[in-house]
């Protein structure tokens, strides 16, 4: 077997190959749009270009929603803010992906090598192979180290738990908060670490204050990073957000069960673990094998298997945690939970079900333990281990963002934002963008925002509730036609979009779709009262005249995914 260092170098080379489309194709690469190109990238681009990264929380950003408060957008004490300050948007995005995957690899490798698997040659190979598989999962790009960095942070905390007080652990704990999300993942991770600390303190009757200090320091750093949110919550400053009208209790029991099964097999879009089928069935096999061994030893049958190792004993518990977390998020939106959510605005507005997002790490730890079990207990087990690792990595590679999004006919980064096309539209209008407002139909408003337009519509996680109600007057006619859209806007409302019944929740009507809207009910007067003047529509509006909208011109370029119909409100 090759040396461990050789396997590491091979793995790093494969990660580079995986990332190579970002370099070879540049802006011609195909990327995820949801919670990515349609939002997060624009938030940082807007903050940097408007020089409001460090502006007061109540400072208004005029290009978004007639003055979105600075508090609504992302924290400035972040690696993303630094990357978007140093680079243009696409290079910043690419550098982020490189950092995420290499840190994911080394974090999982260190965790497995020191705390999970034995240090013998098979254990070292499995550690490297599993780390490679983990690094190639479909991480949410703007999660940063929210999931990709969890193994590295867990490695540091387990070191502190073992009373290993060295600068490397503190460096990890000190830096990761500024490249990850407290709300999305690490508040739940730190809750689990706190529970582990408490259990240790009770069992050993002696609190581990080094471990506790690590938890406290990391929590404090996250609160410092999110000082705007903390200040707003504690001091009652700011504005009433649209989240006050959240209503997540709407699933019936059948939907809950279906969601649970889907989450267990395929996880969530923010932490796609891609564990199915290889890692999943490997874990199931290990669980069954452990059960058989337990029965054999309990009933003292003639077969004398070796006693279970500590790692093997941990597999059922780890799989149980996955099941519990998947079920918890499934019932979080169950209609029966409304009783609890109606008690407190915090419970209603904050998603306490996100423990399941950490399952991405647990699946790969279980995968590594299951592979080690196969290697130890089955004849020619190492051959099977190699085949399973190849299968897992190959399966992940076939779901590479370039293959996935190209195959489902997504536009490339360059085609999506279409800078040249929108520059032509802006030149035709001939006014300073700050003197008029636009909305988009049939495409994400992030595109117009990316290209320098002042947009009334947008996608953001927190904005004034008053604005939500104001914008509703523009789209009320279409919401009345479509109960799905009405429920989507009224019970969530994160996407303040110019919805159309005939388009539904689809914002990718590229020019090859040849879609039209026959009967649009647009609140033109409400639109004009908000300063709206132009509509950038990816589709033709056949009854534009009935809405007092005049078609100015149709714009199209071969290099763009869009055919822009420019309408003016009369």
Task: Spell out the key features of this protein.
570 residues, alpha+beta, 2 domains, 4-stranded mixed sheet, two-stranded antiparallel sheet, 12 strands, 57% helix, 7% strand, globular
Question: How do you describe this structure in short?
Answer:
The protein is an alpha+beta fold and 570 residues long.
Detailed description of the structure:
With 570 residues, the protein is α+β, with helices and mostly antiparallel strands. It folds into two domains: 4-30 and 75-407, no CATH class; 418-569, no CATH class. The protein is 57% helix and 7% strand. Strands 5-9-12-11 form a four-stranded mixed beta sheet. Strands 1-2 form a two-stranded antiparallel ribbon. Strand 1 (60-61) and strand 2 (68-69) form a beta hairpin. The longest helix has 28 residues, at 89-116. The protein is globular, with a radius of gyration of 26 Å. The mean pLDDT is 94.
